[in-house]
Each structure stands twice: as structure tokens, then as C-alpha cells.
Design a protein that fits this description.
The protein is α/β, with parallel strands linked by helices and 412 residues long. 51% of the residues lie in helices and 10% in strands. Strands 6-5-7-8 form a 4-stranded parallel beta sheet, sandwiched between helices. A two-stranded parallel sheet has the order 1-2. Strands 3-4 form a two-stranded parallel ribbon. The chain binds iron/sulfur cluster. The site of iron/sulfur cluster (SF4) has 11 residues, from helix 6, helix 7 and helix 15.
Length: 412
């Protein structure tokens, strides 16, 4: 594997704030911050007011199937509070899950956070229960959470999962077709009719344009990853899912792209490129990585949808592909053992030297994934750091920061 650390004639040491100061003067990043401010303000509004402010008159549904946002849009469905909303009052929501739903304290915080947030939202709506979409291939704790919500009076729709593990490659078309049928079944549940395929095709095409822009930004950023700190990369990725701000997102991306082109003409700073897999809810940990000489060069990059397939099948193919890649070990029933293939590919493609595996404490999936990946990659001489934490966006602990520093120091 090629080591692409640039301009490294004198290796800097890791001081308390060892890395070059991230660019806060970037106008592109400021524009993304402005969008973020609007999103946070909207997330704090009660749902009814937020709906009026939105002015789109779309129906709300909570939950989603990984990669099926184009379907929701084509059906005029607006997602209820996303992650931005969930983070607000996360401790209170976890408390609700433990007290009202009697979930034990040692259970994964992410599942409790979502469960408690549903209940809190219902109270704000005056007791009106919502509608929930859920992929049955998600983890067992998530499935239990959906059943608790159903028992509590929610209208829950489950997209039936297939086990992609050990799928005979010759049967791929059958699997895709199964998920395509599930997508239409979901559309009928949501709207009473099958999805308009022309609209769905447009939504997929538009989503691909966004993904391609994001991928391009990540490639440009590779020269000097400090210019767009990891916190901002995560933010830009999340903002890309909000239709209301799509135009502003593209404008900010245009400005940032020009800035990155300019930065690419300057010498690249010394950094240790790594890749990030799994989930990290603690933004302060991203900040902590940014403050070392380590730089995550690949981590949140979504894949393109296939436009050569009929649009409903493209959704089925996308979901199946996510499972087969073990893309999100904790989502869409990903085949945990296959995520290592993605890691290997990205190590080569991005010239990365190590891997950080993020995850939620007490998540059974992380427990399996990290053991397998740690063993597999350390045997091949690739350093792996497992960083798990809660689903709260709390400050990183001193221990987490120490482990991060030690990890990068080891690679100097
Ligand atoms: S963190 Fe793990 S246990 Fe918790 S919801 Fe995600 S996959 Fe499930």
C-alpha cells in the first residue's frame, strides 16, 4: 500500500493541538454553517409549526429504509425529526425509554434515544400517534423498539428483509426484485397507490447528482483534509439529505469546490490519512481527530444508485448492495464479515494507513465487527482503533482523546 503522506521531510510532533488550524475562514464552510443554523432552528419548532414553515404540505412519517429517501420524496412524504432533531434533548429521551418503556440502562443508547424521542414527539402532538417505517433487517434491539411502539399504538410498517449473507450471486436478480416489490408495498401503505416511476427516476437522478458532488469534494479535499475538518464533512453529508435547502447546499458546494481547487495548488500539509467506518455520534470526537495529525480521508461517502435499472429496482439493488458491502454494520442487516472488503478497497483507493472503527457501546454488531476487523487488519499490519461511545453528542472523554493521540503517535 502506498503511503501518500505529502511534504513530510520533517515530521511534526503531536502537540496539544498538533494539526494545522482547520480553515474557519472558508466562505463555503460558512455557507454550510448558515444552512445548519436554519435546520437547527426548524428542528426546535413543534412539528405543526415546522410543517407550516416548510409550506410543502407533505405528510410526515418517522423512520426510513437505508437509501430509500428517493422513494419517500417521490411519495411526497416528509421525514419526521431526523438526527438533527434527535440530538436535541437526547438525555431526556433516553430517560423516557428507560422509565416509560422499561428498557434496561445497559441497552444501546441509540435505540433508547429514538424510542424516547418518538414518545416525546407524541406528547408534543397532544397524544397523536405517528406512522413509522422500519426495515426488518435492522438490529434486534431496533426490532424490539418497533414492536414496543406498535404495542403503544403506533402504525408501524416493516419492510421485510432478506438475508444477504451467503446469497448465491446467481440469485441476485431475484433478491433485487423482492426488494422492488417491498418498495411498492411501502408506497401503497404510504399513499394508497404505487409510486410514480417517472418521479422516482427523477429523485434518484437528483440524489446521484448530490452524491457525485459530495464524492468530488472528498477527492479534492484529499490534498489537504484539514481545510474541511471532519466535523464539517459530516455536516455537509447530513445537510445533503434536506430537500428544503438543496439549492443552498449546491451554492455552498460550488464555493467550497473553488476554494479546494485553489488549496490544491498549495503544498499539502503533513497528515496521516485514515479511514473511518461505523457510527460515531460524538461530534467532539471528530473534533479531537481534527486536532491531531490524523485525517479521515474516507468515511461518509455514499454510493451512487444504478440509473440503468428501472427506478424501483434501483432502490432494491441499492439496499441489497448496502447489505452485501456490510456498509453500515448496524443498518440494513449488513453482512458484518464483508465490511472488511470495503475497508481494504478504501485503504488502497485513498492511500490510508489506518482504520478507526466507530460504534455505540453495547451494540452487539459493533462487538462482532470490531473483533473481526481488529484481528484481520492488525495481522496485515494495518493499525485499527476502536472508538465506541454513546449516542449522545457529548464532549469526548479524556480517555478517548488519549487513545486517539496514542494511535496517531504510533504511526508517526
Ligand atoms: S447501535 Fe447497535 S444495537 Fe444500537 S441501534 Fe444501532 S445496531 Fe442496534
Amino acid at each position: 500500500m502506498e503511503n501518500v503522506v505529502e511534504d513530510s521531510d520533517a515530521k511534526p510532533s503531536l502537540g496539544p493541538v498538533g494539526a494545522p488550524t482547520p480553515s474557519h475562514s472558508s466562505r463555503g464552510l460558512q455557507l454550510f454553517q448558515r444552512i445548519h443554523g436554519k435546520v437547527l432552528a426548524a428542528a426546535r419548532l413543534p412539528e405543526e409549526k415546522s410543517d407550516r414553515a416548510d409550506g410543502e404540505g407533505r405528510r410526515r412519517v418517522t423512520g426510513s429504509v437505508f437509501g430509500w429517501n428517493p422513494l419517500m420524496r417521490a411519495c411526497d412524504i416528509r421525514p419526521a425529526q431526523g438526527l438533527f432533531g434527535l440530538e436535541i434533548d437526547s438525555h431526556a429521551h433516553v430517560g423516557v425509554a428507560e422509565d416509560y418503556f422499561q428498557i434496561p440502562p445497559e441497552a444501546c443508547t441509540f435505540m433508547k434515544l429514538k424510542l424516547g424521542a418518538h414518545h416525546a414527539a407524541e406528547k408534543r402532538r397532544g397524544g397523536r400517534k405517528g406512522r413509522i417505517v422500519h426495515f426488518g433487517g435492522d438490529c434486534e434491539p431496533e426490532v424490539i423498539a418497533q414492536e414496543l411502539l406498535r404495542a403503544d399504538g403506533y402504525d408501524v410498517f416493516i419492510v421485510e428483509p432478506l438475508t444477504a449473507f451467503k446469497m448465491d450471486p446467481n440469485r441476485r436478480a431475484e433478491y433485487v426484485s423482492f426488494y422492488a416489490n417491498e418498495a411498492q408495498r411501502l408506497a401503497k401503505w404510504l399513499t394508497g397507490q404505487v409510486v410514480d416511476e417517472d418521479r422516482l427516476r427523477d429523485e434518484i437522478r437528483q440524489r446521484n447528482v448530490i452524491i457525485a458532488r459530495f464524492q468530488e469534494m472528498m477527492r479534492l479535499r484529499r490534498h489537504n483534509p484539514f481545510f474541511v475538518p471532519l466535523v464539517q464533512v459530516n455536516l455537509i453529508n447530513r445537510l445533503a439529505n434536506i430537500k428544503k435547502y438543496e439549492r443552498e447546499w449546491f451554492e455552498a458546494m460550488d464555493v467550497l469546490g473553488e476554494e479546494l481547487q485553489q488549496v490544491a495548488r498549495e503544498p499539502a500539509p503533513f497528515h496521516i490519512p485514515i479511514i473511518l467506518v461505523g457510527v460515531m455520534h460524538c461530534e467532539d470526537l471528530y473534533q479531537a481527530i481534527d486536532e491531531t495529525l490524523g485525517a479521515v480521508v474516507s468515511g461518509f461517502i455514499p454510493q451512487l444508485y444504478r440509473e440503468d435499472l428501472p427506478p424501483v429496482e434501483a432502490l432494491g439493488d441499492y439496499l441489497l448492495e448496502m447489505q452485501l458491502r456490510g456498509e453500515m454494520h448496524d443498518k440494513c442487516g449488513g453482512v458484518v464479515s464483508l465490511r472488511k472488503n470495503r475497508i481494504e478497497r478504501e485503504l488502497k483507493e485513498w492511500g490510508a494507513r489506518g482504520v478507526i472503527v466507530g460504534g455505540t457501546t453495547n451494540c452487539p454488531y459493533l462487538a462482532i465487527a470490531r473483533e473481526m476487523e481488529y484481528e484481520y487488519f492488525t495481522r496485515r499490519g494495518v493499525p485499527v482503533l476502536v472508538l465506541d461511545g454513546t449516542a449522545h453528542n457529548d464532549p469526548a472523554t479524556e480517555e478517548q482523546k488519549m487513545r486517539l493521540r496514542a494511535f496517531f503517535e504510533m504511526m508517526l
